Every structure is written in C-alpha cells, then in structure tokens.
Amino acid sequence: MIRFESPWFLLLLLVLPVLLLWRRRRADVRPPALLWGSTVSLPDPGLMRWLWLAVRVLPWAALALVLLATARPQQGIQQSEVDSRGVDIAMAIDISPSMRAGDMGGGDRLQVARATARDFIKGRPHDRIGLVGFAATAFTQCPLTLDHDTLLELLDQLDYGLAADGTAIGMGLATAVQRLRESKTPSKVAVLLTDGENNRGAIDPLTAADLAKALGVRVYTVLVGRPAVVPVQTMDPVLGRTVVMQAVSVDDKPLIEIARRTGGRFFRAGDAASLTAIYNEIDRMERAPIRALVYREYRDLGPLLLAIAAILLALYGWSNATWAFRVP
Question: I need a labelling partner for 236 at 20 to 30 A (CA). Which of 37, 141, 212, 322 fits?
Fold first, then answer.
C-alpha cells in the first residue's frame, strides 16, 4: 500500500507538461545549426536516434521523480498481532494400571487418551494448558504454559509407573484445580479423564469438586472404557510383558456429580472416535474471544526516488559528454 504524506505537492506534476510545451516551442524558433538543402541524402540514424531521444527524456524523468519525492510517498507494511484472553485449562489424566485395558481401539486407554489430548492441545494455540497425572497419588507433569511444544513432549512421557498403583480421582482433580488457583483469566477449566473407579487418595472426589466450584473452575469429566473382560498388559516377573484377559469395571457416579457441581459436563468414551468427539465438543464450548489487532508501519520512499533521479541526471550528463551528440 502506497500513500503520500503531503499529497498537495503532487500538483507540481502539472508543471511538467507546461515546461515540455515551452521547451518545444523554444526549439521550434531556434535557427538550425546547419543549413541543408535536402534530408534525402542524410543517413538513417536508426538505433542511435532512439537512444538520443531516450537521453533527452532523462532530465524530465528525474524532475518527475523529484516532484514525487516532495509529496513524501510511503509504503505501508501491514502487521497484526492477536490479543486473546484465552482459557486456562488443566488436564488430569489417569495413569493407573486399569488404564492398560485395550478396549478403546488404537491401543490401550492411556495411549488413546494421549493421542486425543495431543490433537486437543494443538487446536488451542492461544490457551495456557497444564498437565496432571495421577494414580495412587497425583503430580504436575507440566504447569500452565503457552509453550505447547514442551507440553506435548511431556504428554508423551506421561506413562505408567510414575506413581504407585491405584486411582486417586480426588487427588488428581485437586492437583489440577491447584494449578488453576492463581489464574487471572475469566475462564478456568479442568478436564478429568479416568476409568472412574476411585480407590486411593486423601481427598474425596466430591470434596475436590467443591474446591473447584469455590475457585470458579468448571470441570469436564470423561469416563473412558466400559465394564467388560478386556485384554490388559501386565508385567510378569518370569514372562515379562504379557497380555491377560481381565475383568475391569468403571464407576460413573462420582464423575457425573463432579460435573454437575462445577457447571461442567460428563462424557462417556467407549472408543477412540467417541473420545475424539468429546474433546471436539469441549473445544467448541470453551472458546474465549480473540481480537486481532492490525496496524501499519510506513517506510518513506522519498530518498529512494531522489537517488534514482540523481542516477538519471548523472547518466544524462555522461551521455551528453560522450556519445549523445545532436544530429542535424
């Protein structure tokens, strides 16, 4: 985008045709330098004649550039930045042994949970997101951050064995809520993903729900898997890693009540596709306004035009001093 800081100076360009007309009339009344009876015998100047005409135009082109420079032409460089209030999100993911059940398709429950969480994180570049893991105890795998590359690396490292066996849903939720305690954003969200059977921990799930409600944290609970006899990977001291058929159960009642008390929603994921759909639904519900700020910086083109004008005048002077002589 080009603009002129002093556009009124463009009126000076109207002087150019006046000067050209005056110059033409003056040339018509000037007597010829050489009297010649007939021009038939003169050689055809050809290309040299056109070069000579081009040289005659150079000072007028230089004058036009100088007049343009006085109007201060400027080139606009558009820039933009995003001003987003964002949403602070703490994700609490169960890594207890029961998450080894291979009933989700595409791997065990934890593998599917990590894969879908990865897509969810990638779709929210302007939100601070933290990660909590829990089994018998809970721990912060990653605090709230906008550095999603690091967050994704830590998500890949969230695995079994980082905490003792057991499922402490209350501890996992309380730790996620603690990550959001100092948040200044108007929207604070916890996503709690588990197989739903609480059996460990010093904090009851409903007590953690009351804490979340008191701090203004909305909790979305996700129950993965279904009660059935499913293949579960185990570590046998003799055979090593092996797969056995094992009965697993799920408990949805605490998760439904947590969502109700905090103003969130309860979801049930029976397979990888439904878990992806759940994350997509949460993504649509939790969106903060994002305002794009657009501004322009302008670069003055006047010096460039003056430099080109100087080059044209130098070329004109050199040409006249060497080869660009007048023809009769």
Answer: 141
